Amino acid sequence: MSEAAQVDMDRVDVAIVGGGLVGASFAAALAPLIASHGLRVAVIEANRLAIGGAQPSFDERSSAIALGSRRHFETLGLWSALAPRAAAIRDIDVSQRGALGRARLSHRDVGTEALGHVLPNALLGEVLHRRLAELPLDWRCPARVEAIAPQARGYRLQLDDGSRLEADLTVLADGGRSPLKRLLGIETRHHDYRQHALIANVETARDHQGCAFERFTADGALALLPQAERRMALVWSRAPQRLEVVRGLDDDAFLDALQREFGTRLGRFLRVGSRHVYPLALSRAREQSRPHLAVLGNAAHAIHPVAGQGFNLALRGVMDLAAAVETALQAGRTPGEAATLADFERRRGDDRDLIVQASDALVRLFDLRLPGAAGARGAALGLFNLATPLKRSLVRRAMGLERRAGVD
Ligand SMILES: Cc1cc2nc3c(=O)[nH]c(=O)nc-3n(C[C@H](O)[C@H](O)[C@H](O)COP(=O)(O)OP(=O)(O)OC[C@H]3O[C@@H](n4cnc5c(N)ncnc54)[C@H](O)[C@@H]3O)c2cc1C
């Protein structure tokens, strides 16, 4: 961020705690209001920006970006910078290892050119932070918010560099751990899946032709997302001890193990890049907002990555909060007033509950090891494959194109 873009201020309209994927997206969504209403925005990020480095949002992962999210990035004026490296997902193939039943979701089911796209997180971070560098933000990085306390007109934040900041609206986008939530007494429901996810980029002998694969196995799930040429982003989730075993294998043995789990639909797995492991849990804050406060992204909900929905859901929250702030400013209200946060909650509707429940149900369904469960799942997948209207509705919802049943 250039010196010229820095604005020195101790009281701001909006303070965003966390400049990861979600906090940075929210700051970018406020850009038109900074220009039109002179909205004063601060972003506080604890990690020195290391795109592609240790920062959780911008590591070596790739994210499946639903078509609805692509439209949000278009609205934010960022899609043209992302598009050259976005790989289209045209179809999704869902199967289970060692049992019958398969479902195929296609862009043709919903009449769009793609179901979504795959983007490297590092690119998302780079494009978002380049945008933020153009805005007159109070950008504090590296700086960590250590304490938060309610005031008459907002919240006061204590930073670890000794400075303080007061904000009319404070947005917690500080990720899954969020000690600040705890300081505020916002309870979080937490369920440990007792699974970790290993991510790596792999190369296959056969072209994926824009197809993403979800394969449920006896002890977890494998997702392969299409990337450029014959490369795919692997997300392999299973029990931590079993995952450690495959993580420790040399490349050839790892590729063999992957081949056994996935089969030969893409020919042989030829190469694998560096491997990284993430613990998986479901967590959900019991409150998404209070007057003068909103919670976004992983701080509000962290879900299993099996269906690639976490960031997509978070981005809808980002856009809803930005829209509520815009409406407030137009009506002469402040961003943090109770009515603004009530408007945010109304816009969110049941989106969060439904996506959290659906992703959890998917994990549990495929985690069942009861006798006959595999056959029942196979039948369910087969039926689902035939039930075109249900399939269309679910696909549109997962793409972020449908917020309520039957409503665009
Ligand atoms: C293996 C895996 C694969 C995934 N794949 C997909 C996918 O395909 N599609 C999809 O939609 N989603 C996916 N997700 C989910 C997605 O990655 C998350 O939704 C997203 O990273 C959440 O971003 P965030 O900004 O909320 O949190 P984070 O990325 O954790 O960022 C929080 C930021 O806040 C900063 N911070 C924390 N505390 C403070 C503080 N006190 N003061 C200042 N700064 C602070 C941190 O430094 C960090 O930069 C996946 C997740 C995993 C684990």
TrEMBL record:
SUPFAM superfamilies for this protein: FAD/NAD(P)-binding domain
EC number of this enzyme: 1.14.13.-
The organism's place on the tree of life at top rank: Bacteria
Membrane spanning residue stretches: 12-35
InterPro entries per record: FAD-bd, FAD/NAD-bd_sf, UbiH/COQ6, UbiH/COQ6_monooxygenase
Family named by the database record: Belongs to the UbiH/COQ6 family.
Protein name: 2-octaprenyl-6-methoxyphenyl hydroxylase
Organism in which the protein naturally occurs: Kushneria aurantia
Lineage of the organism: Bacteria, Pseudomonadati, Pseudomonadota, Gammaproteobacteria, Oceanospirillales
Gene: ubiH
